[in-house]
Amino acid sequence: MTRTFFVGGNFKMNGSLDKVKSIVEGLNAGSLPSDVEVVISPPFPYLKWAKDHLTASTVEIAAQNSFDRGDGAFTGEVSVAQIKDVGSTWVILGHSERRTILKESDEFIADKTKYALDNGLKVILCIGETLEERQKDETLTVCNRQLDAVIAKVSDWSDIVVAYEPVWAIGTGLAATPDDAQDVHSKIRAHLAEKIGEKQAEGVRILYGGSVNGKNATTFNGKPDIDGYLVGGASLKPEFLDIIKSRA
Ligand code: 13P
């Protein structure tokens, strides 16, 4: 089973229209490889601009959140229909910053995932343990629990990409080692195989996220269960192109 290499850029709550313009121009001029799926995720106000100005056919747009219901009296929320209306095809759900800072529960994330998929958005589903959980040897317990909440509600995983993002590696400059990441990824895939079947699990891309940059990206090459990256800080910099080309 060949899984298309996937590089996501999560801008988080960073940037400005000028910044997004320079990133999109960089991607347009970047001679991107045709066999790498790239998804960038600017903040909501810039989704439409980014979509309208991207010329690279391999680049799609993701929102950084969506709600678990359709249009209605939900002040401050953004609907799946609205995200699709401006040309986005993906949404990032379950990011640790939303789990920890916004107190989103496994259950809520699963509801949002189901709603997004049922209504035609593809989902980058983030999972991962905190430093404290890692030190207590709970990495897989946490990842499996976060996956199981979604497994309970979603049976077709063909439009889900899983991003394993250990919280201790996010924004710290301390990426997981390629061996450690591969070990967790293979166990995540084994867990998925047990729960959603081997065939589906073989097809699910599992990205690594946490301090990936233009220098360390190639060190993950050759790890069979690492199908790409979800990049934060470095996706705002020219080195994002190096990450996109790191598998070449
Ligand atoms: P950094 O690449 O900045 O560590 O962030 C990773 C991340 O959270 C992507 O979603």
UniProtKB/TrEMBL annotation:
<comment type="similarity">
    <text>Belongs to the triosephosphate isomerase family.</text>
</comment>
<dbReference type="InterPro" id="IPR000652">
    <property type="entry name" value="Triosephosphate_isomerase"/>
</dbReference>
<keyword id="KW-0324">Glycolysis</keyword>
<dbReference type="InterPro" id="IPR020861">
    <property type="entry name" value="Triosephosphate_isomerase_AS"/>
</dbReference>
<dbReference type="GO" id="GO:0006094">
    <property type="term" value="P:gluconeogenesis"/>
</dbReference>
<dbReference type="InterPro" id="IPR022896">
    <property type="entry name" value="TrioseP_Isoase_bac/euk"/>
</dbReference>
<dbReference type="GO" id="GO:0019563">
    <property type="term" value="P:glycerol catabolic process"/>
</dbReference>
<dbReference type="GO" id="GO:0046166">
    <property type="term" value="P:glyceraldehyde-3-phosphate biosynthetic process"/>
</dbReference>
<dbReference type="InterPro" id="IPR013785">
    <property type="entry name" value="Aldolase_TIM"/>
</dbReference>
<dbReference type="Pfam" id="PF00121">
    <property type="entry name" value="TIM"/>
</dbReference>
<comment type="pathway">
    <text>Carbohydrate biosynthesis; gluconeogenesis.</text>
</comment>
<keyword id="KW-0312">Gluconeogenesis</keyword>
<protein>
    <recommendedName>
        <fullName>Triosephosphate isomerase</fullName>
        <ecNumber>5.3.1.1</ecNumber>
    </recommendedName>
</protein>
<dbReference type="GO" id="GO:0004807">
    <property type="term" value="F:triose-phosphate isomerase activity"/>
</dbReference>
<dbReference type="InterPro" id="IPR035990">
    <property type="entry name" value="TIM_sf"/>
</dbReference>
<keyword id="KW-0413">Isomerase</keyword>
<dbReference type="GO" id="GO:0006096">
    <property type="term" value="P:glycolytic process"/>
</dbReference>
<dbReference type="GO" id="GO:0005829">
    <property type="term" value="C:cytosol"/>
</dbReference>
<comment type="subunit">
    <text>Homodimer.</text>
</comment>
<comment type="pathway">
    <text>Carbohydrate degradation; glycolysis; D-glyceraldehyde 3-phosphate from glycerone phosphate: step 1/1.</text>
</comment>
